[in-house]
Design brief:
The chain is α/β, with parallel strands linked by helices and 215 residues long. It has six helices and twelve strands.
Length: 215
């Protein structure tokens, strides 16, 4: 039996089959795009920019080498007094230090997710100019990274690009995979212009920034 989402998507696909081309697709392709589409600074400057943006958003940043990912995760969680944490699908066993309980999502209820200390994930790509982290969801549910109050994300320096167009070109290869974009901890000022954290996602974000072995 189809759910409401599948039914809506089915109707959209059916309607698109009968859509008559407007002939303006080529016009759209000819629009002059003067914005910068490639990086104009060296790799060290790109990483520095990314770190600055994360700090501006109030995120913690913890640089380390690849061999020290697990020990850095242990240190960060210990400082936050977190002894158990949700873990997204695909997080390697090598990232999981002893002394921390890692909870896999086996159809956990939203209430159960909300009761955990946080969630640990990797990322698909990161954008320096906007300080944005892009999560690509394949096996895990998006709720896993939206409901817990704390998010610890592992980002490799080679995943960081400078500009949004660079990221979009890579994202286009993800096909239909659901994505979540994160620019610092969740916050809103929609209500009476009062900034409130944790409304649409985690209240706190820490990033472990892993330097490649060749850096």
């Amino acid at each position: 039996m189809k759910g409401p989402k599948e039914e809506i998507f089915g109707r959209i696909r059916s309607a698109n089959i009968h859509t008559v081309p407007t002939g303006r697709e080529s016009e759209y392709g000819q629009i002059e795009r003067k914005y910068r589409q490639t990086s104009s600074i060296d790799r060290d400057a790109v990483i520095d920019c990314f770190v600055d943006r994360l700090h501006d958003y109030g995120s913690g940043v913890f640089p380390c080498r690849e061999y020290a990912i697990a020990s850095t995760i242990a240190s960060v969680l210990r400082n936050r007094d977190i002894r158990e944490i949700l873990v997204s699908a695909g997080v390697p066993a090598a990232w999981r230090p002893e002394g921390i309980r890692f909870i896999e999502d086996h159809n956990l209820s939203y209430e159960a997710m909300d009761q955990q200390g946080g969630v640990l994930t990797g990322c698909a790509i990161a954008i320096a100019l906007t300080g944005t982290i892009v999560l690509k969801h394949v096996a895990e549910r998006r709720a896993l990274t939206l409901i817990p109050d704390y998010h610890l994300c592992v980002v490799f320096t080679e995943q960081v690009v400078e500009t949004v167009p660079e990221a979009i070109r890579q994202i286009s290869g993800f096909q239909a995979a659901p994505l979540t974009t994160i620019s610092g901890p969740s916050a809103t000022a929609d209500i009476e212009m009062i900034r409130v954290k944790g409304v649409h996602g985690p209240r706190s974000l820490d990033v472990i920034l892993v330097e490649s072995a060749t850096t």
